[in-house]
Amino acid sequence: MAINYNGDICVVLDSQHRTPGNLRAFVQATLRSIRTGKSSDVRFSSTERIEPVPMITKKMEFSYKDGQDYVFTDPESYETVTIPPELLGDGKNYLVENGLVTMVFVEEKAVSIELPPSVVLTVKDAPGGIRGDSANNVQKAVKLETGITVQAPLFIKTGEKIKIDTRTGKYMERA
Q: Do 61 and 106 sit in the same domain of this protein?
């Protein structure tokens, strides 16, 4: 959700309703300013009015990395949007060319990105397993095309495609 707070448009990252003992209830929220990108904790009393700002979601395709920034393209209108790495967070580890993501816009500015639940990535480097080293679900560290390292079963080899859970960053299955 996005709100108008002190003349600035902010995205609500987290909110909690609290009722401490014999005091009045309030809502504790973490807001990120769209203009400055800074986050802050704010308390709203139960009588305060909040003005919501409409948010638009679009399916976007990851095109390429331009220096530090990431460039996404709208598959319908072919418009491009450039996103700084701070906005992506750990999501940049799961971006592959032409991979679809859901981008959230507030007043024509991208504020967040939702990755699909899983992505298929190619294994760039996988050390060989040792014969007889398969007693119990033994795993090894494999390096993927985006540069991250995940734990995968011993039978995974270099060049194979594997499915990774974007929420936990763990190996799911062969693709």
A: yes
d(CA 120, CA 95): 10
Q: Clarify whether residues 32 and 11 are in a common domain.
A: yes
Q: 70-128: per-residue pLDDT in tens?
A: 888 888 888 888 888 777 777 788 788 888 888 888 777 777 788 888 888 888 887 77
Domain count, the chain: 3
Q: Are strands 118-125 and 8-18 parallel, antiparallel or unpaired?
A: unpaired
Among residues 114, 109, 118, 1, the alpha carbon closest in space to that of 59 is found at 114
- Burial annotation 150-172 (CB, 10 A radius, 16+ → b, else e): bebbbebeeeeebebebeeeebe
Round to whole Å and give the CA distance between 137 and 115.
29
In terms of Cα–Cα distance, which of 8, 83, 84 is closest to 39? 8
Instruction: Give the whole-angstrom CA distance, residue 13 versus residue 5.
Output: 14
Phi, psi of 122 (to 5 degrees): -90, 140
Domain of residue 164, residue span: 118-174
CATH number of the domain to which 24 belongs: 2.30.30.30
